[in-house]
Design a protein that fits this description.
2 copies of one chain form a homodimer. In chain A, 75% of the residues lie in helices and 0% in strands. With 208 residues, the first copy, chain A, is mainly alpha-helical. Chain A folds into 2 domains: 59 residues, Homeodomain-like (Arc Repressor Mutant, subunit A), CATH 1.10.10.60; 135 residues, Tetracycline Repressor, domain 2, CATH 1.10.357.10. Chains A and B meet through helix 1, helix 6, helix 7, helix 8 and helix 9 of A and helix 1, helix 6, helix 7, helix 8 and helix 9 of B. Chain A binds a DNA duplex (30 and 30 nucleotides) through helix 3.
DNA sequence: ACGTGTTTTAAATTTATGTTTAAATTACTT
DNA sequence: AAGTAATTTAAACATAAATTTAAAACACGT
């Protein structure tokens, strides 16, 4: 990843605008004309700086990947000397806030969600670089909570149960907002959701 | 929804082919040329029968919605006199099989998943007709399991925890397959997943 | 078999969008 | 300040895709 400091300001403003629009509309629906209009650069700028739309998209993913990585450290801010349950709580809380909070750092998650449904070829690298590390972090915590009397398969499934709960609240926003007659999550909502998932998951793991 | 019987055979074959390709590639990436090629009709047939690509897409959603509805009855095959926990087991099992089993009836789920990420305007009706009924069915079961000492909010959150777990196994397939070095779920895998989610969720609800 | 309405076809048209070009402008170096 | 490289611009270009058209083929009741 090219550090932001060394990137041309115009190139960076393209990536910023592009990320917003890609996250809203997906790769195909997004036109280079719309991106250039949003950040007020000439239509030819994308090809000038990035070669073509596709390379610009990849640069955009990396740009937001690095923003997300800055915002949430690799270890999710988990204290290695905390108890397993505390670690799990911290993980869930951090993950949920990263998914649901408004702001630049959530764009990467949205772009990632699109890649799942409509992979562009960038997915393999993203899974390796961004998703697997978080998955393995969580599954190591789950193993600690469950103790050593359980199989890898059980750990894996429980890890997925927790991730699934978290991701639902982002992926199913169109339903949730319709059920609740709202169209955002408040800070309070997010807190409640995180607490619920922590609670629900610990209950399940405790008696596993 | 126009019953299949009254639909022109050619129109129906277009919807069949279209559904497969839309589910694979999404609305934008799918071209009318490709659909017409797949079902061996002339390029103009889509406009002739449906007016334009967009109306054909809507007809396609309805077509597969009705196929899915035929395959899985409205009540998920739940026996009203079963115990709450048995009802929950049946619901999860049915839901997971519907999501993960290969076949026509899963296409609707895939199309629905795309709508979430990239709504085309059909989403409102789909939420009302297909999603809310299932959601309310599950939440009524969750309420039975939890008993009456819990708030609507708690019931709602637990319902989402269960749905989230189930949907993860479809939405996160690109990760799961990479973690497991496979690219399908076997019948056995699906059974294990369903059992796990039932187990995990009942443990959580029991101690709620 | 005739005629009418429907369906099918290949080709033409239109539109949207990514990309290239070449000239104009700006920034930088000596 | 002159000259060179980098950037910006508007316009042109290319391509791919949806849509339309009009003629041909077909189906079917009389």
């Amino acid at each position: 990843m090219i550090p932001a400091k060394t990137m041309k300001p115009k190139a960076e403003s393209i990536l910023e605008a592009a990320g917003e629009i890609f996250a809203e509309q997906g790769y195909r629906k997004t036109t280079v004309r719309e991106i250039c209009k949003r950040c007020k650069v000439n239509l030819a700028a994308i090809n000038y700086y990035f070669g073509d739309k596709d390379h610009m998209y990849l640069a955009c993913l990396k740009h937001y990947q690095s923003i997300a990585a800055q915002k949430v450290p690799f270890n999710f801010g988990i204290n290695p000397s905390a108890s397993p349950k505390e670690k799990l709580s911290t993980f869930i809380q951090t993950f949920i806030f990263r998914l649901l909070e408004e702001g630049k750092q959530t764009l990467f998650g949205k772009l990632l969600a699109r890649e799942f449904i409509e992979p562009t070829g960038a997915l393999d690298a993203l899974v390796e670089e961004s998703i697997k590390p978080s998955f393995y972090l969580l599954s190591s915590i789950v193993r600690e909570v469950l103790g050593n009397n359980c199989t890898d398969q059980e750990v894996e499934l429980c890890t997925m149960s927790i991730l699934g709960q978290c991701l639902y609240f982002r992926n199913a926003q169109p339903i949730i907002f319709r059920l609740r007659n709202k169209d955002t999550f408040s800070e309070e909502d997010i807190k409640e959701i995180a607490e619920h998932i922590i609670n629900f998951s610990l209950k399940a793991l405790d008696n596993y």
